[in-house]
Amino acid sequence: MNPGTASAGEPLPRAKTDWVPPLLVAGTALAGLAFIGSAPTWVTLTVAGLAMGLLIFIMASGLTLVFGLMDVMNFAHGLFIAVGAYIAVSVVRLFAPAAAADSFLANLGAIVPALLAAIAAAGLLGYCFERLVIRPVYGQHLKQILITTGGMIVAEQLMLVVWGPDMLPLARPQTLRGAFLIGDIALEKFRLAAVVVGLAVFAAMLLVLNRTKLGLLIRAGVENKEMVEAMGYRIRGLFVWVFVAGSALAGLGGALWGMYQESVTVLIGAHMMVLIFIVIIIGGLGSVGGCFVGALLVGLVANYVGYLSPKIALGSNILLMVAILLWRPQGLYPVGKS
Amino acid sequence: MPGAGRGRGMIGSLLSGDTPRSRVLAALLALVLFALALAPFLFPGTRALDVAAKVCVFILLVASYDLLLGYTGIVSFAHTMFFGIGGYGVGIAMARLEPGWGALLAGVLAALAVSLALSFLIGLLSLRVRAIFFAMITLAVASFFAILASQLSDLTGGEDGITFKVPEALRPAFRLTEEPLLGVALGGRVLSYYLVFVVSLALFLALLRAVNSPFGRVLLAIRENDFRAEALGYRTVIYRTVANCLGALVATLAGALYAVWLRYTGPNTTLDFAIMIDILLMVVIGGMGTMYGAVIGATLFVVAQNYLQDLMKLASGAMQGLPLLPQLFHPDRWLLWLGVLFVLSVYYFPYGVVGKLRLMAVARALRRPPP
């Protein structure tokens, strides 16, 4: 730090962090403990909830950024999830011996190519989708919804042509099956792995958004697009890459979600879309932090309620959304739109 | 454009002055009306009559959706939910109570009340904000409702749905006359069909009336520019909510009719998300913002759904041995082609078949030298 230059010495005024939503997650976890009563069950459910939440976050984060940046709502986001999952099935099949081997390194040799292929395929598809489908309908919400829904229908049918209508099994790699037993607490290995990957993605995203010039531009673009353009940056060029990154993340999330469920159908994307919409509405459209908190909340609540009273598991998410919208109508972290 | 093609006489007032304004369209509509009105005599056979009844119900359902999408400019993914409420209202009432006209009426009224309350709540919660928000909320609520219907199996029959008895006069065994008329036995099925047909037609004309009233003009204004409509002094939230409730009520009635026709209600015939997609396709291909688009879209789609597959089976068989093509033309892939048609319509014919036909009529009139 050089005291001679005034601007470097003075810390910039920091934006106030709103701590209420993260506290809400902690509160939900504690309330879960109170209702469930047994600590080992609670730990198992909490890990499951966090794993589910983080996977949803991976899939949803791109969608919320795309909306924040360009006011584009992509109803075909589920398509990238499904493509990621199907590509993972095909690649894991190629490396079947490695995936079934009883060594973690050999398993990595199957899983890493599968995930990379899913990311690459979904990203590439995202690039084409943005160019061909979304570009002509910028700024027209109604047409966006219609076109992306139509794109989803066509793409779903094409996937049926390529991979067939049957449910495809997607086995977890050998060393990630089963659970660690610590006393009475059962921790599923794959869920722990999902938590690790999810946190890594979140950390990487925070680093990019908060510590790089690219991230600065993205955040500024979400805040006020015209102003960033007035300063000479091309928001559209930036947007394409955010869209591609979001699609690639959805592909990664889809591949992991497929392994989490151990099977893939063409409906995987459409099913996840409902949860993803709930999450990004809860978080506040356009807010990555809100998306993270929302995803954790949804994951935890779904698992607790699923254990306490399975019949209303999905309903719990709707109720959660309604409750949060009554409290903060623009979501947990409202994004200031000009 | 009001006044430009204002119809005259009885037909004009029956159509609320909103005449087809294109000779080809008028001919097509007349053909559909003629075919549907005489369906039991023109196309004897169970399957054909099923298709005709489905066309009637879906014309009504799609028209009520067009009120939202085409006239008000709001995208709802919960329309099948209201369709399902109608079906389940009738189904539950008929299965629980003595199956007669009273039970039918009670079921329909209860379903209407539930739909009204739900659509009002959804509208209140989400129509204040942007169109996209409404679309996402309705998607979430509708999928929740579908799960609810399959979970509450004591009430709804779960995945199996409810098979029920309809009033005496509508049962297949019922005979109106001993002698067949024009070779068709006048029984319960024919009566049921005409119930579906007449109610659908009446409600369709009522919707046409609604969109051509001052209320409908305000909806169009909201679709074009809601900010400006608000500035002119119209409370857009109220208009949107009323349109949403009206659409929901008509969809409920369509669901009730469909349940009466099928004598069955279940998640696959009413609540499935695939049906929502079908409705969207029908509205857009037929023509958004034109009630006649619902007629063209629903007829085209339902007929394609039932007969395109046969055609594709032939095509697929003919292409045997070629790479990939047989899979693309596999009968199960019919939705692929309609999906492509849908995407192309949104880009190139934003007002669908009906809009295109009307534009062509206008172009022709302009080309003609003035007398």
Brief account:
The complex is a heterodimer of chains A (338) and B (371). Chain A has 338 residues and is mainly α. Chain A is built from 14 helices and four strands.
Distance linking N and C termini of chain A: 36 Å
CATH class category label of chain B:
Mainly Alpha
Write down the CATH topology of chain B: ABC transporter involved in vitamin B12 uptake, BtuC
Strand content of chain A: under 5%
Terminal residue distance of chain B: 22 Å
Write down the oligomeric state.
heterodimer
The order of strands across the largest sheet of chain B is 1-2
In total, the number of domains of chain B comes to 1
Largest sheet of chain A: 2 strands, antiparallel
Q: What is the helical fraction of chain A, as a range of percent?
A: over 70%
Radius of gyration of chain B: 21 Å
**Shape category of chain A:** globular
How much of the residues of chain B is beta strand, in percent? under 5%
